[in-house]
């Protein structure tokens, strides 16, 4: 399997990258190269043991002409964009990867689901509508564009909606400060108060990035995932 990730070193994408390499896949990262592979490849002090090969393309994806030049002659089984947030960015991806990939995977967000919810049970059939957060509305607009080019032009898209995801670098907390989640853990250790949602009884779903990675790779190259939106979350609901 020949895979290209735009981004690739974040909470979700790093976990998928490690798992893809363990599966023996041929993995490419397209990013600015600000983080060395050693900073995200290792987890729990160990490097992946699989036979996969890693390739780095140093490039700012916003410089479309430069990206097109560096991708010349390359084709992929799947391309996933982890850092597209606005319609103009997925429109750029469409121009870059039309005819160059058998599957384009867009990382959307479960925050795009209807707010306030009509039901506490959320599935892929739940309407998309979030009047409270511009980030979510932009993700919805991205999904709408990609579904349009899938229907009208056969662009082979799959939409994935993660919920709140965490890994060994990021503690699963609802609210944290500008310095990240570990300062909240320090406050708990020190017996200091921390901010919570409402009275602390609202329900939420957390997902370990390593679990997300295994579900994600099941979508890669899966013909049944084309033209579909899929949510990947834990099956445990927490307050």
User: In CATH terms, what is the fold-level topology?
Assistant: Rossmann fold
Mean pLDDT, all residues: 90
Overall shape: globular
Estimated radius of gyration: 18 Å
CATH class (first level) name = Alpha Beta
Number of strands: 9
Strand order of the largest sheet: 3-2-1-4-5-6-9
**Structural class by SSE content:** alpha/beta
Major sheet attributes = 7 strands, parallel
> What would you give as the CATH superfamily?
NAD(P)-binding Rossmann-like Domain
Please characterize this protein's 3D structure:
By secondary structure, this protein is α/β, with parallel strands linked by helices. The protein has a single domain (2-168, 205-232), classed as Rossmann fold (3-Layer(aba) Sandwich). It is built from 7 helices and 9 strands. The chain has helices at residues 11-22, 37-41, 64-70, 87-97, 134-153, 182-189, 209-219; strands at 2-6, 26-31, 53-58, 78-81, 104-107, 157-162, 164-166, 206-208, 228-232. Helix 6 links the parallel strand 7 and strand 8 (206-208). Helix 1 (11-22) crosses helix 7 and helix 4 (87-97) runs parallel beside helix 5. The longest helix is centred in the middle third of the chain and has 20 residues, at 134-153. The mean pLDDT is 90.
């Amino acid at each position: 399997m020949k895979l290209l990730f735009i981004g690739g070193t974040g909470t979700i994408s790093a976990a998928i990258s490690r798992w893809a390499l363990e599966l023996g896949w041929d993995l490419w990262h397209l990013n600015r190269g600000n983080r060395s592979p050693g900073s995200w490849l290792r987890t729990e002090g160990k490097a992946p043991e699989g036979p996969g090969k890693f390739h780095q393309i140093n490039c700012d994806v916003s410089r479309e002409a430069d990206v097109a030049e560096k991708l010349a002659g390359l084709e992929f089984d799947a391309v996933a964009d982890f850092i597209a947030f606005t319609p103009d960015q997925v429109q750029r991806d469409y121009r870059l990867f039309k005819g160059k990939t058998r599957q384009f995977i867009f990382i959307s967000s479960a925050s795009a689901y209807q707010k306030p919810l009509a039901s506490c049970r959320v599935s892929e059939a739940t309407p998309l509508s979030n009047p409270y957060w511009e980030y979510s509305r932009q993700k919805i607009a991205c999904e709408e564009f990609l579904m349009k080019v899938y229907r009208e032009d056969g662009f082979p898209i799959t939409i994935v909606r993660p919920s709140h995801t965490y890994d060994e670098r990021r503690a699963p907390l609802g609210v944290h400060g500008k310095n990240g989640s570990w300062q909240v853990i320090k406050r708990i250790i020190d017996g200091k108060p921390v901010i919570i949602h409402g009275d602390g009884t609202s329900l939420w779903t957390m997902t370990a990035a390593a679990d997300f990675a295994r579900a994600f790779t099941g979508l890669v190259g899966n013909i049944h995932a084309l033209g579909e939106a899929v949510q990947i979350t834990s099956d445990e609901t927490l307050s």
